[in-house]
Amino acid sequence: MSNINPTFWIVVCYMAVMIGIAVFVSLRKVKSSEDFHLAGRSLGPLMMAGTLAAAEIGGGSTVGVAQRAFSTWGLSAGWYVVCAGIGIFLVSFVAPFLRRSMATTVPEIVARRYGTPSHIITTLLSLLTLFVATAAQVKATSAIIGAVSGGDTFTVTILVAIVVTLYTMMGGLVSVAFTDIVHIIFITVGMAIAMPIILHGAGGWDNVQQLITSRPGFETQYSLAKVGWNTIIGLILMYFMTFSTGQEAVQRYFAARDIKTARLGSFLCSLLMTLYGFIPAIIGLCALAHFPDIPAAQAMPVAALKFSPMLIAGLVMASVVAATMSSASGNLIASCTLFSKDVYQRYINPRATDRTILVISKVVVMIMGACSLIIAMNPEIGIIDLLVFGFTMRSAGPFAPFIFGFLVKKVTRSAGLAAIICGSVGALAWQLAGEPYGIMSLVFGSAISTIVFFATAKISLSLGEAEAPPAITAEHIEANRLSEERNK
After folding, report:
1. Which range among 95-99, 135-139, 288-292, 450-454 shows the weakest confidence by mean pLDDT?
2. pLDDT recorded at residue 73
3. Which of 174, 293, 341, 487 lies at a 20 to 30 A Cα distance from 262?
4. Which pLDDT value is given to residue 139?
5. Which architecture, in CATH terms, is 7-381?
């Protein structure tokens, strides 16, 4: 233990505090499965914005962005987060429909309109993605702690998986929301304080730029457009599509206190993510300027340790751990909600009591945590690549049926099913083909999904197929009204 960097203990203390919050919240706030899954549908605008931002600012938006800035994208890696903020802003316009639906999961809404086959496929795609996304966050967290402590990756990864799984299992979304507020304060304030200190320690902006651009092949590393406008636009579309259909994000909208809160919380989250965007990219460039031969994944921890005092380095490490832990816990609570409501209660035990659902949810959190740990142990998988693949398979097919299911009346069940299948297959094929013409797989798959959706709806209606039932009925609207009154 003598060779462990002192900043490691700052991170350990931070993780211990998260466990303490989870214990407190689980004893005081969790009384039912709705409390566990949706925080009693009582999240206010600040809590909503904080937990939504914390769920989306994870390993890809911290370690992953610094890694991309260090390796290929340069300063333009910051667009990865800014585009996410723009995507969340666009989802704000869908937020009223999400809250009004009084649903618990995305597949639940798909099932209302398009029936059982569409529900099963959407549920499986969502669960697969959450496996992958949780693994990515665990992997990012362990990379940071491993770099700080000098410990072996195997031990550190297990530690991270246990802590995240434990505090999620204790309090569900209530616990996650409370810890997310702490997380997002650490992420935004911590990084905002640390970045200029790290940049100063690296010799200042001009020195960093000179060191980087003087090397052959790095002349454009400071261009905001290096990543390409096609990629920037593709990222915006990708985030809008995945945030509007992803359980870990949509679950926050379901949990909002009312429709106004859902929209306002989304706007605030968008602003927060946009302001944060380029901070990790600048830190990654500081590492590139002075340590071009280190592994790209260690760009952020190395820059923090080399160019800032111990306390600031510990703050950066805690900030990154906050980002990755919050995203991992959000994925875990989303996956247990999907399984308990869309698999167990729907197909295995429809008469399950609320207590049984609560127990099943906690068991699923443990199983998902263990499975994600196994995936995270693969050293060959990149963080952002892992996340983008998961987002693609989760959202490409269901995108059109889910979004247009709220907006378009005259659709059919066969249109929803055909769009889900064709969009998913198209996205996977495009991914395997290497994304020709620079078009992202998610964008291509979602375009296929949209075309097939409307074409099939028109054909099937002309052949006499009945219109699909609405996603939001008068009963849901009344339930939403009562829920909002109760939360006032």
Report:
1. 135-139
2. 92
3. 341
4. 73
5. Up-down Bundle (1.20)
In whole angstroms, give the CA distance from residue 416 to residue 331. 25
Model confidence band, residue 1 (pLDDT cutoffs 50, 70, 90): very low
Domain positions in the chain: 7-381
Q: Tokens at residue 184, please?
A: 């997002």
The Cα–Cα gap between 343 and 471 comes to 19
Per-residue pLDDT of 389-400, as tens digits, reads 777 888 899 999
Residue 376's pLDDT band (cuts 50, 70, 90)? confident
- Dihedral angle of Cα 328, 334, 339, 341, to the nearest 10 degrees: 160
Alpha carbon 381 to its chain centroid, in Å, reads 18
Confidence of residue 483 (pLDDT cuts 50, 70, 90): confident
Cα 98 to chain centroid, rounded = 18
164: its two tokens: 């995240």
One-letter amino acid identity for 317?
M
- Higher local confidence (pLDDT), 139 or 346: 346
